[in-house]
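Troubleshooting log. The previous structure file for this entry was overwritten by mistake, so regenerating from the original sequence record. Sequence copied from the archived sheet and checked twice against the printout by T.R.
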Amino acid sequence: MSEFRLFHNPRCSKSRAALAIVEAHQARGRDIDVVHYLDTPPDADTIRMLISTFDGPSRDLVRRDRPLAETGITSEQLDDTETIVKVLLATPELLQRPLLSDGSRTVIGRPTEHIAEMLDG
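Regenerated output below.
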């Protein structure tokens, strides 16, 4: 397994900016796996790992826009880990992006400086 995993959506400008930071670190020898999570959605165990290693409210890992409303799940219901897992398994585009994880810590790359800080730290 790689030292880090970037959960990346190439259609997102913040995710593309995070990828540029990651690629610069890869050029310096860092082992970072880029996961195109819309093509290869994370499984339930990976989602649980992201939740358990995220230093913030787990609900922040879910984008709260129109597709969430279409699931019938309210923002208030996102306090439950298994609800988040269920939502992200069914609708992976709701995963906040970009995310960087080393398996013991996960950060959202908004702002992208969070990605650089984790890779430099």
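The first strand starts at residue 4 and ends at 8. Archived copy saved in two places this time.
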